[in-house]
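Appendix B, Record 12. Input sequence as logged:
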Amino acid sequence: MSHEPPRPASPRQWVAPWVWGFFVFSILLLFGVLLATTWRPTLFPIDLVNPDQLRPLPDLLQMPEDELSVWWPLVLVGMVAIALNFIPSNNVSRLIIRFIVILFGCRYLVWRGWVTLNDAHWLSFAASLGFYGLEVLSFFTYLLYFYQTAWLTTAWRSQQANAYQQAVLRGEYCPSVDIFIPTYNEPPYILRRTIVACQAIHYRNKSIYVLDDGRRSEIADLCAHLGVNYLTRPTNEHRKAGNLNHALKHTTGELIAVFDADFIPFQNFLTRTVGFFQDDQVSMVQTPQHFFNPDYHSQNLGIEFMMPGDMEYFFGFIQPGRDFGNAIICCGTSYVVRRRALEAIGGYYTRCVVEDFQTGTKMQIAGYRLVYLNEILSMGESPRNFQDYLEQRLRWLQGNMQIYFCGDDLPIWSKLSWFQRSCHLSLLLHNINPFIRTCFLIGPFLSLMTGISLTVATLSEYLFYALPYTLLMIATFSWATEGRYFSLWGEVYEVTFAFPGMVQLIKILRNPFGKIGSIVTNKGTLSNRKRLNLRYTWPLVAFLIAVSVGVFIRYGGYWLHIWPPMEYERSGLEVMLAWTLYNAFIALIAVLSSIDQPSRRQSDRFPVCTVCRFQLGDQTYWGYTRDVSETGAALLLTAGRFIEAQRDTVGTLAFLEQDFSVTAAVVRSRTEEEQCCLYLRFLEVSDEAQRGLVQLLYGGLTWWHKPKAPNGLDAFWPMLIRLFDFRSLFSLYSNH
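Logged structural output:
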């Protein structure tokens, strides 16, 4: 039978978009009236809040007298950026390049702190010093990042896995493994493919348990039909942690593997991970999370085959660095843990809204070794719309902050090593990043409107000290992470999350353990209409409107002779203008990428090319698939003639290489590149065929599933093009 996902109703919007628009217009009108009544282009007189003349540079920071020499730092950075295209990113080369970045960063911060602070007025000094403090904090965060990712364990762990798996493959080491699949509200069709994939894992001594906190009869029937164990409990106390702890009491396996209901393990998952437990010091092996569907940001903009997902940087680069000092983060799925160690710490940690990070931290406090194998051995489903993504990240933010209010249970700062504590400090700074990002977003604009320059320097000084450091950071980040992180794209994520994250931080600080937001992330959600999501992005829309109006008031007034002639403009405000326009560019991309596209497809299609035979009545047709999903396929026929099959004509599609068949109905047929293409919808999919489809679509890291790793220019141009074609606003459907 066919297993098609339902189409849920779109969530209700409590505040109409026009209400927010009227509110923003009122604020801007009030601001314009204030400026008009003072009859000047800025809120404060420029000569009052800025120095009359620039501070002379000390001998140490003197600019070169030759104008051409001013460009040498930029030329040097350009040479480094070009050289990075020919230098492989490894532990040694990254150390060298990062030292160069740190030198440029120190040079920039010394210049900023010594020369550019605005001390013309107490308000100017407070704003300038505060902004400089945020820059120092950002540089300190980079130093922590440099320390924690100085030596990645990726190659070393893969070599260990190669050695350890030999005993597993020979059957010499085969401890019992209980596979836990916790579920709450996931649709049965999602759970079915996870169960089928777990059954296909190449490991004989395993037992599969579906932990249903939804207590659903259809899930119990599904488990009985597929032949796996079904566990439930009378309450949902402690959410996922309580569900897992309940399963611990009813199972006996020496090792426990956990997969979220939407994660599909590869057949070699256990052979690559179980071998590590031959070392008695190893208590957990975590593998990366990878997703088979496009990240919602890139899909909404139509650049899903170009941009890396926002989690690739963490799983592909941060975690291997943390692994060197036993500081990895348990991520809730796709890991194996030793039961003995888990029970020794009292089971899964139940005090916080999430259980994974806290449980792993408790194991590290107890002295257990957690290992990170940086190999993609499973794939899952990422949030399909902006609301689900945002609610998931807000829940993670609360869980990550709650751990720092559990000092009685989790004595992080007294029991962990210096390296582990530095990782927790980095995470704490990352948690407050919405505040930092908001300041960087609106600070330059407020500087432009109030007339208070946050930095006081000439344009040539910026070219000499600031721009080389900025460009070097952008170039080296992408290179060091092997394309897993693109600075501009990362800023889009941060700007999108800034205002909702700020609100969440305030709620958390008021009541860290209160119920805030959603409990679980929705899976398989689809929508048949476009959603603007102004409920969440209206602050960014307001910012864009304010920038447009504010810049016109600020500079258009001079051109239209509304303001008195401008005798001079204090150095630094021109930079604030450039920074404001850049922030507006990022904010516009963030807004456009948050507009969810309607989808006409009920399941993900992948460009699978495999030989098939289609039996339609007494006629046999041969061809190969152009794309395949769990519910249908597009079949290109090798014969030259065109088939005029009527809609809903039923036949049998045989996947010859995989040796299974499905009953399929013709949806339509048309000519494509001088070939007849049949669009088929699957009607009856047997259990055997379901297993074949799961392995065909999700059973390995095929080219279309591999992480995206573009270089900076490759990533920048598609993003720039999508900004000006407004695809997310005017397109009718998403292709996925």
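The two ends are 23 Å apart (CA to CA).
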